Amino acid sequence: MSKKRLVIALGGNALGNTPEEQLELVKETAKTIVDLAEDYDVIIGHGNGPQVGMINNAMEFSSVNGGKTPYMPFPECGAMSQGYIGYHLTQSIQKELKNRKIDKEVACIVTQVVVDKNDPAFLKPTKPIGSFMSKEDAEAIAKEKGFVFVEDAGRGYRRVVPSPIPVRIVELNVVEQLVKLGDIVITVGGGGIPVVETECGLEGVAAVIDKDRSSAKLALDAKADMLVILTAVDRVAINYNKPNQESLAEMTVEDAERYIKEGHFAPGSMLPKVEACLDFVRKTENGMALITSLARAKEALKGETGTIIKK
Ligand code: ADP
Ligand code: MG
Hints:
Blueprint: E1 5-10, H1 19-39, E2 41-46, H2 49-64, H3 74-99, E3 106-108, E4 112-114, E5 127-133, H4 135-145, E6 148-151, E7 157-161, E8 168-169, H5 172-180, E9 184-186, E10 193-198, E11 201-204, H6 211-221, E12 226-231, E13 237-238, E14 246-247, E15 250-252, H7 253-261, H8 270-283, E16 288-293, H9 297-301, E17 307-310
Parallel strand pairs: 1-2, 1-12, 2-9, 3-9, 4-10, 12-16, 15-17
Antiparallel strand pairs: 4-8, 5-7, 6-7, 10-11, 13-14, 16-17
């Protein structure tokens, strides 16, 4: 019988902020992934906030100050981040597989995700990227390149890009073929490289697709049995950070909808995760979603911790 299929979304705590930190942290991440890959077919999605920020800032700095390198567009920075993170993850997973004498291949797919150019998000960019700058510099660049800048909490001006919803994962069939061969596949890094359909084919756009949303889309399209979102907390809570905080072992779709209305999940952190899980669970017959910590993922899949979201 074929194994059950998991789509695992890795958060910031699985990767860290610098190359050294990342290489160290992915050793632990790899152990968790291989634990799960012993029992399930595994497809991995991951975030890239700090990494694409770092690449974009470095590229921007080097092309402006002294002009030593060409200007690097944002989608290209996203592609670089997929390669850099995928390289670290692949290497660590390969090593862990070898240690355990498991015969499996690991593949990282540079992945594009189609977004709708009429997505309302394009009218209201919200995701800050790049370095802080003065009002004058921001205005000059806005005029020259048409970028949008916002003042960020008194720290200066920062470019913002839209966060459209994922419509189609371009490399989905490749992912499917590799998973069928039993490989561990890394895809939709940073939510995927956002592209739009044009008369001349696909074209990259400066945007950030939420990685939890893309992982839910991946779980749906790859017909996963479960979407597993691994983050920094063991369980989702209501009244989070309040004296009456209560951790949840499970939520039905209706529970989750009510908690969202009551404002229990912080926008930009837990809310997109719960929404991604809802999207997956609502659109599947028996699909379940799990939110838990990277460290306790194995226990969570046995029902010992974590928050299950189900119909
Ligand atoms: P990731 O990098 O994994 O996407 P985020 O920081 O975006 O992680 O989101 C996870 C964080 O959400 C948790 O570490 C926690 O601090 C925060 N959080 C906000 N609301 C809740 C809640 N209701 N229950 C649990 N954690 C919450
Ligand atoms: Mg997040």
